[in-house]
Amino acid sequence: MDPIISISALSKTYASGFSALKGVDLDIRRGEIFALLGPNGAGKTTLISIVCGLVNASSGSVRVDGHDIVRDYRAARALVGLVPQELTTDAFETVWNTVSFTRGLFGKPPDPAYIEQLLKDLSLWAKKDARLMMLSGGMKRRVLIAKALSHEPRILFLDEPTAGVDVELRRDMWQLVRRLRDSGVTVILTTHYIEEAEEMADRIGVIAKGALILVEDKAVLMTKLGGKQLTLQLAAPLAEVPPALARYGLVLGKGGKTLVYRYELGRGEGGEGGEGSDPAGDGAIAGLLQDLAAAGIMFTDLHTTQRSLEEIFVSLVSEREAPGTDERGNRAEAAGEGAR
């Protein structure tokens, strides 16, 4: 199946000389939820703004469902809805009027039934006659989503959609995004909430310093990079790990009351593990338990934990980010955003 968005060799350098994007190549699959993660100043908003026609690229190309965003601007833009980070709304307008007006901007005929259902889906129906200046921040965020969906786009960009909203509203938005995906809408979101990507995304991209450093299915990413840890609660404390168990790289904890065994997923024999890790992975656990019994070491409980997406993200970005880059990147990208 052809990608619904195809980005090729996309670069953006602002007048200040700051390079916000550096040769980004990315295909977005039709009907998926794609999460784009990256620190402040990494280029997330610049990338989205170019695809949505708000910022001009310095080089490269973008096609939206086969339409070049420069040559076929109207056709491409009609397919896209954008929910920006900023809560920019028409303060003195009502919810109903601002959503209906936005639909008209895309040349869509009036459809009161569609607007009514949209506002109900977003829990805005009771506020349809309220002026936007009277709404809470969370409700204004919902209005931005309604405006983005008013012209029935097939692609929805959500730039930090739950920034500054409470946990309950965040969960409601997650449910809405899933319903949109189930209805055939492709959703691309940027987020600082790693649990948001872990909860919703089908695929994850990580961007740092304007370069896309990883794109992977979420499940595959967690398997390949999500190291695991087995913790054993010992029946009696140990002063040291017996030499016979040295090959497992076990680490004593809590005053000798626990043994910790770390291993990486997706690695076979001969891989490299860090301190307290073993490349053999899950297959070595049975042997470990047998060797513990042979050494007379008894345990009362055991549990496993897996490396979180947040830990994977931090480790990936830290490999690319030099000290001070984030701060400089923030300033430069902010200057570029203001210039547009």
UniProtKB/TrEMBL annotation:
Keyword terms: ATP-binding, Cell membrane, Membrane, Nucleotide-binding, Transport
Basic and acidic residues: bias regions: 319-331
Pfam families: ABC_tran
Residue ranges of the TM segments: none
Domain ABC transporter: 5-234
Molecular function GO terms recorded: ATP binding; ATP hydrolysis activity
Stored InterPro entries: AAA+_ATPase, ABC_transporter-like_ATP-bd, ABC_transporter-like_CS, ABC_transporter_ATP-binding, P-loop_NTPase
SUPFAM superfamilies: P-loop containing nucleoside triphosphate hydrolases
Keyword Lyase: no
Location of the region described as Disordered in the Swiss-Prot/TrEMBL record: 319-340
PANTHER family to which the protein is assigned, alphabetical: ABC TRANSPORTER ATP-BINDING PROTEIN
Protein name: ABC transporter related
Organism in which the protein naturally occurs: Thauera aminoaromatica
